[in-house]
Design a protein that fits this description.
Shape: elongated
CATH architecture of the largest domain: Orthogonal Bundle
Structural class: alpha+beta
CATH superfamily of the largest domain: Intergrase catalytic core
Order of helices and strands: HEEEEHHHHHHHHHEEEHHHHH
Number of domains: 3
CATH class of the largest domain: Mainly Alpha
Radius of gyration: 29 Å
């Protein structure tokens, strides 16, 4: 097979159009860069002989957007990835990598973790232009531009970015893309969160919020104002997770892991009994207005509308309710170990964010003793 000096544009311009690429001199053992001449312009093709003797090919791009030196670098990088065991034949784009990551989370961790990641990707990756970018072409600028368009608070954007990075790291571990590409996302740092998530609603404000909710959303949101569980965990509860006789609730889908049980206060048991009535064990315990499970997009808007109607701060959200319940429990003297267990978080986190309330509570108690002396 005759070699062509395809590194020279004057040579490429004189070539006749044909389907078979014109091949240049080998770039290294078994690796060749070719140029497929078209009626207008042309495209670069790489060819590499694997250890088993089979030859594999890769289209690198059009001549208009890729000069010889750039095509050569891509060909060498591609061959190196093949030698390292990289196989991108089944997973090439960012969306495909995210879907594979969700599959792995569902198998290795559980439904809650997988659903959380999948819902984030549905909102921000699958329908966005970044989702169609090939992993080998993904750049930090793509990620930064994508993040700047996210319509969410910095803290939420950071959690979404973390999910994306986890999916990309999984792609590296699975050898869908070369490990050298990871510099493109590891250099993208989380956005600074300038405001702390410390908005607190007292009991009167919570009652005001509940009084302005649409009837179909009332029961679900009311539980969030009574129990310090995450809304995602509440949304995934099934009828079988509630034991009426013992007044216990078993939470399977949560960051705290499967099988966590909490004792329900008597004041709210009736709400659980009402919502479980007439349903099958696998039905949603608290169902959306169409009878299906709740999700973040479904509880977000009712809370936002009710908060606005009640004149509550614009930042009011589901997390506000969880934070308010935890604050109330701490202020009323419940020990931090019990609070951590009920809330499904670590004692370290509870002590970090709410320990100061216990210190103030202790100081107020001591002041009361001094006043009595």
């Amino acid at each position: 097979m005759a070699r062509q000096q395809i590194d020279k544009s004057t040579v490429r311009n004189k070539l006749s159009a044909q389907a078979e690429p014109y091949w240049g001199a080998p770039l290294k053992r078994g690796l060749f860069l070719g140029f497929r001449k078209l009626a207008l312009g042309g495209s670069w093709i790489a060819r590499f002989r694997l250890d088993n003797g089979r030859q594999t090919y890769r289209s690198l791009g059009d001549e208009g957007g890729l000069d010889y030196d750039s095509a050569k670098k891509l060909a060498v990088a591609w061959a190196s990835s093949l030698q390292a065991g990289i196989d991108s034949s089944s997973v090439r784009t960012l969306s495909e990598a995210c879907r594979k990551y969700v599959e792995d989370r569902r198998q290795e961790v559980g439904e809650a973790n997988a659903n959380d990641a999948n819902n984030r990707f549905k909102r921000t990756i699958y329908g966005d232009v970044i989702g169609s970018i090939k992993l080998e072409h993904l750049r930090s600028d793509h990620i930064k531009s994508w993040r700047s368009k996210l319509d969410m608070k910095p803290s939420s954007a950071n959690r979404t970015l973390s999910s994306l990075k986890a999916a990309l790291n999984f792609a590296v571990a699975s050898r869908f893309v070369d490990a050298g590409r990871s510099i493109e996302w590891t250099t993208v740092k989380p956005a600074k969160v300038t405001s702390s998530r410390d908005l607190y609603l007292d009991r009167d404000q919570c009652r005001s919020l509940l009084g302005r909710l649409e009837p179909w959303a009332h029961d679900f949101i009311k539980v969030l104002t009574q129990l310090p569980i995450r809304p995602g965990a509440l949304a995934m509860l099934q009828v079988k997770d509630f034991a009426e006789k013992t007044k216990q609730l078993t939470i399977h889908h949560d960051k705290a892991g499967a099988g966590r049980s909490i004792q329900l206060p008597g004041s709210i048991v009736g709400l659980f009994v009402k919502n479980a009535a007439g349903k099958l064990p696998i039905d949603p315990l608290f169902s959306y207005e169409d009878g299906t499970f709740w999700n973040k997009e479904r509880w977000k808007q009712p809370i936002k509308r009710a908060a606005k109607s009640a004149g509550l701060p614009d930042e009011t959200c589901a997390y506000t309710l969880r934070h308010s319940v935890i604050t109330e429990l701490v202020l009323h003297g419940l020990d931090l170990v019990s609070v951590a267990k009920i809330a499904g978080t670590s004692l370290l986190m509870i002590d970090k964010h709410y320990g100061k309330l216990r210190q103030q509570h202790a100081a107020d108690a001591m002041d009361a003793l001094i006043e009595l002396s």
